[in-house]
Structure prediction request, 263 residues.
Amino acid sequence: MSNILVERCGVYNLLKICDIILLKEGMNEMKIAVCYLSSLFLILLLPLSVTAEVKEVKAMVKDIHWLGHDTFKVVGEKVVYTDPFKIKKKDTADIILITHEHYDHCSPEDVKKIQGPNTVIIATSDCAKKLSGKIKIVKPGDKINVEGIEIEAVPSYNTDKPFHPKANGWVGYIFTAKGQRIYIAGDTDYIPEMKNFKVDIALLPVSGTYVMTADEAVKAALDIRPKLAIPMHYGSIVGSEKDAKRFAEGLKGKIEVVILQEE
Ligand SMILES: [Zn+2]
Prediction:
């Protein structure tokens, strides 16, 4: 049996492949032993590595604080805030990510509450006009590195409502914290680009009206396939915890969902 076949046998982790190969190439005790043992080894090890990955992602959740609506404080190598709105406690962010210009996402008075002299704000151009300080303007598709943190601006728009037209160039973000790729979707519907996102943790809107409904967010999550999803965009302008629960219910047994308590 060639090395490639041995490797395939192991990688695909299927004893059946061994049977096919062995039948095709002729039985020989050595081949049988190598094939079955490598399969067995992977069968035993794979669940362990998957469990370790899930543990890492779950450990990150304690560093993700939901401050209501689309406002999160993520504490990784840097302190990252998303769409600061109705900020209750003064703080200093290293990085502020703002998805678009609407008042409940781009709020100059809330930005001031968490902005220090070194805070870097990443925003779309229409929001940037309302702010001052260290600002980087982004559009969908941009990839930047801010103080060692990888940040991608990704498309975020409505498909069946007029509030967030694709032409506005508004964004969601995928950024890295403690090795996890975290996606904050912004005000978006379920869009085809989502299936190309590589994400560990997805923060998805679920309220409907201006964004996806909980059911649409379930479809989005199944396309994005994060290791963990957190519902957002409810409890403030539109939507309630019912939407978050419906979202969790829809993904039961498929994708881990954590409903965060507002802090
Ligand atoms: Zn909006």
